[in-house]
Write a structure and sequence with these properties.
Number of helices: 25
Radius of gyration: 28 Å
CATH superfamily of one domain: P-loop containing nucleotide triphosphate hydrolases
Distance between the termini: 51 Å
CATH topology of one domain: Rossmann fold
Subcellular location: Cytoplasm; Membrane
CATH class of one domain: Alpha Beta
Main location: cytoplasm
GO molecular function, one term: ADP binding
CATH architecture of one domain: 3-Layer(aba) Sandwich
Keywords: ATP-binding, Coiled coil, Cytoplasm, Hypersensitive response, Leucine-rich repeat, Membrane, Nucleotide-binding, Plant defense, Repeat
Shape: globular
Largest sheet: 12 strands, parallel
Structural class: alpha/beta
Helix content: 25-40%
Membrane topology: Peripheral membrane protein
Strand content: 5-15%
Length: about 725
């Protein structure tokens, strides 16, 4: 909010924390009142109810206007009294996305330690050896382990590789799933005993390298080591921990724990300049003050990287850097406490909307891989950031993790900012412990005995429920949670094998829904939806309602088999006198087994990502291939056919169609298509193709590669 207008996205950093939180709470409560009234308008089933709700809506707007007026006067008065204070200097950073880069893991200052771990892994010892790296949080244990693990020579010496992140909150099932995923292929529906058997059999007789990152207890190790066979074939386990007694517990006599060292001042400076200036030299004017800044990091790599990220977003002036140095010099205590202070400083420099985005990341389960595309869709659904049709991620990062020290900062700040809250455990007890200020609640890893119906909201307003469970017996009491909170914007319950079709239709403010259903869901009142992910809770074919074709804001549509998307022509026939129905904002589409795939594609002309999975015996593939030509913005195409004859794509038509495919296609994956080999050369006409994957994709005796056929950007085949 500023003097020229009222916005929840811009709150001055010059006001006190108390006033800032007061602004936030006023905005939240105003939004809740308006949304509640809008909900009554949308759900009104009689004219008198609709008129009453409209009158109430106008009255609520007047109340909001009055509150904002008085609050703005209060803020202006405080800002006047604080005029000239140094707190305004915090506004010198920029959040320009063009400056954000994704960099490879570096080992500046760790070369000797890399060689030490490397040599231990290839040592001529037949026994299964456990090698441990021990050190405080943020010192670079994981970075060192990752660099060794990814080394091409190390990879070539082992038959099987797996990376497992344990974390302080040890989750046996999650650990097993990570190992199974690495060596065979994950199946969450199996029991823990079955998963353990799969891991043991998958590793038996094979030389393996397992990295166990961030282990906190000897009990966790005792449970884990039983699944790793010792066949005296030079298999290795590389383990990282903060706790010396854990490292000593798993220690092998000839391989004592490796204590991760701090960076020297020179190495800290090299790391800092690489992060800030990339390959460019540091300006001479900033070199002295820059080294003073680095000195305050006390050789802790995480602190160096965070401070580098902070100053890298500033204008590179002496005054800006001097201000950072003065803040750093004010921090006292141990290296660990100073690191937390540095993380907090970097957080405080963020714009308000990016603070919300950052805190949202922190509530995902500890050390869990986070899907970047999903995270961005959730940010958009929560209205932390705006959706822009001409903007997209650069595609180089599919998943991310948050360092546990940063996650600790997130969890502590959420109690101040009132943006998000994580709940593990008994839901009713939890609801009694909070008030109506919490905006987002993520319920993580619940067991059946942790939810008890009936549920009551007690005036609490939720905008998001996200449940992430790795158990197979799911609490049906979750229905009472979902139905009780009427203003939800995000419902992410896909991991629960339960039917949510009965509770979705009345959540009119939903922007993101990922759930399992057994019945068709009426979406005609959910006009804010941007992401729809529906999977089946049973095995019955189910056509999704025609309402989907009237939802112009949809950007991501994933309807899993045996569900399928309805015929747009049928929806259009019901809309007499209206314009033809197109989903022009849709960018990602997974139609699976819909018998109307060709027509669906023609009605979604701006797709960037399309995945077709079809096991129908008689799909109309000529029509489907023909429809692909209209997708001029398509970047990723995945076709998976389970039933197809060898002559399905033969003849002269396919080559003509391939020549007309979008030149923007970067990734192409074909399964079961049985395309003649001579057609492959036409794929070289796709100028931006960098990934080509296939499984039974082509047919013929051999692939004759012509010298004049060049895949200009192909990186993966």
């Amino acid at each position: 909010m500023n003097k020229k207008g009222y916005s929840s996205a811009t709150i001055f950093v010059s006001v006190s924390t108390l006033i800032r939180l007061k602004i936030t709470n006023v905005v939240y409560k105003a939004e809740d009142r308006v949304d509640s009234t809008l909900r009554r308008i949308i759900l009104a089933d009689r004219e008198d109810k609709w008129q009453k709700a409209c009158t109430s809506f106008y009255e609520e707007l007047l109340k909001v206007e009055q509150q904002v007026y008085f609050l703005n006067r209060e803020v202006m008065l405080i800002e006047f009294n604080n005029h000239g204070s140094k707190s305004a200097e915090l506004a010198t950073t920029t959040s320009s996305p063009e400056k954000i880069t994704i960099e490879e893991n570096t080992i500046i200052g760790m070369e000797d330690e890399f060689n030490t771990i490397f040599n231990r892994l290839i040592a001529p010892t037949d026994k299964l050896v456990v090698i441990s790296i021990v050190g405080m949080g943020g010192i670079g244990k994981t970075s060192l382990a990752r660099k060794v693990y990814d080394n091409s020579y190390i990879r070539s010496r082992f038959d099987k590789h797996a990376w497992v992140t344990v974390s302080e909150e040890y989750n046996k099932r999650q650990m097993l799933l990570e190992v199974v995923s690495s060596i065979t292929g994950s199946n969450q529906e199996m029991s823990n005993d079955k998963l353990m058997e799969i891991v043991y059999r998958g590793l038996k007789g094979r030389r393996f390298l397992i990295v166990i990152d961030d282990i906190w207890s000897t009990e966790a190790w005792d449970q884990m080591q039983r699944i790793f066979p010792n066949d005296d074939n030079r298999s290795r386990i590389l383990l990282t921990t903060r706790l010396k007694y854990v490292a000593d517990y798993v220690n092998f006599p000839d391989y004592p724990p490796h204590s991760k060292s701090f960076l020297s001042l020179d190495d800290s400076w090299n790391l800092f300049t690489e992060k800030v200036f990339k390959k460019d030299p540091c300006p001479h004017l900033l070199e002295e003050i820059g080294k003073h800044i680095v000195q305050q990091c006390r050789g802790l790599p995480l602190s160096v990287v965070v401070v580098a990220g902070l100053v890298g977003k500033m204008d590179p002036t002496y005054d800006n850097w001097k201000n950072v140095e003065e803040n750093l010099k004010s921090f006292f205590g141990t290296v660990s406490k100073r690191c937390q202070s540095i993380l907090s400083l970097s957080y405080n420099y963020l714009p308000q909307y990016l603070k919300a985005c950052f805190l949202y990341v922190g509530v995902f389960p500890e050390d869990r891989e986070i899907d970047v595309s999903k995270l961005i869709r959730l940010w958009i659904a929560e209205q932390f950031i705006k959706a822009r049709s001409n903007k997209r991620a650069n595609g180089r990062m599919r998943t991310c993790k948050i360092h546990d020290l940063l996650r600790q900062l997130c969890l502590s700040e959420t109690h101040t900012e009132n943006v998000v809250h994580v709940m593990n455990g008994n839901v009713p007890m939890f609801l009694k412990s909070i008030d109506d200020q919490w905006r987002v609640i993520l319920l993580s890893e619940l067991q059946e005995n942790q939810i008890y119906p009936p549920m009551h909201s007690n005036g609490i307003t939720l905008t998001c429920i996200s449940l992430q469970s790795f158990y197979y017996t799911f609490p049906e009491g979750i229905y009472s949670i979902v139905s009780e909170f009427k203003l939800l914007k995000v419902l992410d319950v896909l991991t629960f094998w339960l039917d949510f079709s009965s509770v979705i239709s009345d959540l009119v403010h939903l922007r993101y829904v990922a759930a399992r259903i057994e019945e068709g869901v009426s979406l005609n009142k959910l006009r804010n939806l941007q992401t729809i992910i529906f999977k089946s809770a049973g095995k019955t074919e189910l056509e999704q309602p025609l309402d989907i074709w009237r939802m112009s804001d949809i950007r991501h549509l994933d309807i899993g088999s045996p569900l399928y998307i309805c015929n747009p022509l049928e929806a259009e026939n019901e809309s007499i006198g209206e314009q033809p129905l197109f989903l022009n904002n849709l960018q990602k589409l997974y139609p699976y087994n819909s018998p109307f795939v060709a027509e669906i594609i023609r009605r979604t002309p701006n797709l960037k990502r399309l995945k077709i999975l079809n096991d129908s015996e008689h799909p109309d593939w000529p029509a489907i291939v023909d429809s692909l030509i209209v997708l001029e913005k398509l970047e990723t195409l995945h076709i998976n056919l389970k039933t197809i004859g060898p002559n399905m794509f033969s003849g002269d038509i396919l080559p003509i169609k391939i020549k007309k495919l979008s030149p923007n296609i970067k990734k192409l994956r074909l399964i079961g298509t049985c395309i003649p080999w001579e057609v492959v050369k036409l794929l070289a006409n796709l100028p931006n193709l960098d990934v080509l994957k296939g499984n039974n994709a082509f047919t013929g005796t051999y692939w004759k590669v012509d010298e004049d056929v060049v895949f200009h950007k192909l990186k993966y085949l």
